[in-house]
TrEMBL record:
InterPro entries: HotDog_dom_sf, PAAI_dom, Thioestr_dom. The lineage of its organism: Bacteria, Pseudomonadati, Pseudomonadota, Gammaproteobacteria, Pseudomonadales. Belongs to the YigI thioesterase family. GO terms for molecular function: fatty acyl-CoA hydrolase activity. It comes from Pseudomonas fluvialis. This is Medium/long-chain acyl-CoA thioesterase YigI. Pfam families: 4HBT. Its EC number is 3.1.2.20. It is an enzyme of class 3 (hydrolase).
Length: 156
């Protein structure tokens, strides 16, 4: 069985962007999409006072860090699922992908989240018919690796 190479069309890219921009919590935090491709997803988050976890040192809250890694990983899992489900009709594909959810997320906090802008990137490690595994990283604007995450997502 041959597999057609996956191309993330502008239409699919817009669908993924719309899906994540419509989540109220993502908007509340201020998460912004930078790159959506078949190889990588990149998002960033500007620091604001409401996101501080340690008010003495002014560092990003750990829950915000894990959320950003999870959101970025979920977008990458969704793109991987588009590839796996490209043989389905648009309606059936959207029905399956509407069930996207996090099964497991492991976060390793490596350094304090200091800075004014944080960037998350995610790459697909494995995408199956029902589950995807994604690796994510969070960097501060000076390039410091703040945290890494491995997420497992239900995709179908």
């Amino acid at each position: 069985m041959s597999h057609t190479p996956f191309v993330l069309t502008d239409e699919l890219r817009a669908a993924v962007a719309s899906f994540f921009e419509r989540i109220p919590f993502n908007r509340l935090l201020g998460i912004e999409l930078d790159e959506l491709s078949a190889e990588r997803v990149t998002m960033h988050l500007p620091m604001k006072p409401e996101l501080i976890g340690n008010f003495v040192q002014g560092i990003l809250h750990g829950g915000v860090i894990s959320t950003l890694l999870d959101v970025c990983g979920g977008a990458m899992a969704l793109i991987g699922a588009f590839d796996k489900h490209q043989h389905l009709s648009s309606q059936e594909r959207m029905t399956r992908l509407s069930k996207l959810g996090t099964i497991d997320l492991r976060v390793d906090y490596l350094r304090p989240g200091r800075g004014q802008r944080f960037t998350a990137t995610a790459v697909l490690l494995r995408s199956g018919n029902k589950v995807a595994v994604v690796r994510s990283e969070l960097h501060s604007e000076d390039g410091t690796l703040v945290a890494v995450g491995t997420g497992t997502y239900l995709t179908g």
